[in-house]
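Suppose you are handed a protein chain with no further information: no name, no annotation, nothing but its sequence. What can you learn? This example shows the usual starting point.
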Amino acid sequence: MGVQAYQQMQKETPSLKDKQVTDFVHCVVDGLTRAVPQKYARSGWEVTVFKSKQVNAFALPGGKIGVYSGLLHVTDNGAQLAAVLGHEMGHVIADHGNERMSTQFASDAGLAVIQAIAGTQSRERQQALALLGLGAQVGVILPFSRTQETEADLIGLDLMAKAGFDPHESVALWQNMSKSGGKSPPEFLSTHPANDTRIHDLRKRLPHAEQLYQRARAEGHTPSCNKPANIPKVG
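A reasonable first move is to predict its three-dimensional structure. Written in structure tokens, the prediction is:
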């Protein structure tokens, strides 16, 4: 499914052809993939830089990574891009895709049973079922997703440190995101933790990540991924 989704995106979204930019992104990905657990250390991870103003990236099972060019206007250097991509690869390592599908399926199936029992009864009953659907979304799926996001943040932090990228740049990244993101929904109605929450959790983990980083540097893991001076803008 990951491979199919990736191929579909490649058909629908144009890729950026700027060699300096694509070399920069590949440099960061190569550093990270050398630090992933052996199970995921496949050679030849496929990377596409999509020409889009979206500030986003993703990693899919099957060794597929996508970076939207808009993200490169928010990340100041290779270490900050590594923080984002490490997070996305963390979702793959933690098998969050399967977990989310299972959770959504269980929620949908449970609501379908209740709706079948209710039939086409009163308007009030239908409104109650609608509220139950909202309750399932806010009470189960979103908190579960936020937990996954936090887990991926911490996996990504360790991953970038093991690859030799300065883990302190993860905090700087989310400070940049806070400045550029505009108004966000309340944390309890979002699939992602608030930026302040992420920064707090990352700072708590930094002493451990710093040890991994210093060990990686001592072992010669010193990725030199220089961000190009000019990143093409879209739109």
